[in-house]
Amino acid sequence: MNTLFQPVNYGNIISSNRFVMAPMSRNRATIDGCATAMMATYYGQRAGAGLIISEGIQPNYVGQGFMNSPGLHNSSQAQSWRQVTQAVHHKGGKIVAQLMHAGRIGHPSLYPSAHQSLAPSAIAAKGEAYTRSGLQAYPTPKAMTKQDILETIEDFTQSAKYAIEAGFDGVEIHAGNGFLLHQFMATNCNIRHDEYGGSIDNRLRLTREVIAAVCDAIGAARVGVRISPENNYNDIVETDSDKLYKALVNSLPEQLAYLHIMEAANRPQTEEIRAMWHGSLILNPHKSWQDGPVSPTIAEQVLAAELCNGVAFGALFVANPDLVERVRVGAKFNELDSSKFYGGDEDGYTSYPNLQQATECA
Ligand SMILES: Cc1cc2nc3c(=O)[nH]c(=O)nc-3n(C[C@H](O)[C@H](O)[C@H](O)COP(=O)(O)O)c2cc1C
Asked: For residues 35 and 166, what is the distance between their CA atoms, to the nearest angstrom?
């Protein structure tokens, strides 16, 4: 039977256990999108996870959705990530870079020059962006031209190369949570009439092209893909998710390092995808939203049911840098302070004690 403490391979990535740290934006990068020493400490503290998936990283300027989110689109940014990957590797961990283009979930004030946000169609998302001058409504984005699409694929590819240069063990392409690739998939924000809109195959075209280009650039065995079927974050409405995700999963390269599902309370759909996908699968399980954050008990259940090969924990890894050790010895968890999720300093970021520090303070 699979358990959280057994090693597992995700393509070329050899993971010492089945704990995966879920990608989580913490908005503590420099204004230029560089990683900092504090970020290296944070990720290094969590290197007990068999695999860390970094926070969402923008592959180009207009891919930035949030203040102080990091980038991987120039060599200074790539260089800045080296301290992070080294901190994780030094402690025997593995880390992949989540490449996340926010699309219409952005704001021009986040970009260094006057650009409009890009999206499949010129339809603004409902909601507001956090900007330096407070909350502002998401503006109407520019419907991407064919040239914008080609450049975006190229930017994902270059970003993946920067990730490898920076020492990451691979990349995860973010195709969920209402960001650019998900926007192309969803009929409420993609009303294009060209080969990138309309039919399921057309709405999946950009995601498939990005995956293919990134796999070509760094090898499929170092590439993961995250999807979030039926997750309506960021004003996404899916009308044909069953068919759409089956079509996507059916066309994924077999050698992919892993498929990662952020489950949004549709367990039968997860089971169907599991039955179709013969590669490694990482699950961020939410059978129902009432279950709260992923717990070790939930993780053991989905592993025992062979629904997945690894389990992604979000909130628990924020508050417990040594989560794996705590679960191993049956220790209590630290209390989470969600008010410190986004932006700020060490407080609520690198300040959570590990077991040894907690004992010393007691
Ligand atoms: C502070 C925070 C930031 C997040 N940022 C991202 C992100 O950058 N990319 C992403 O794919 N998901 C992001 N998520 C979603 C998490 O990866 C995860 O799916 C979610 O926390 C649910 O898992 P949990 O129940 O274990 O917390 C974020 C979640 C939190 C709490």
From this structure: 11
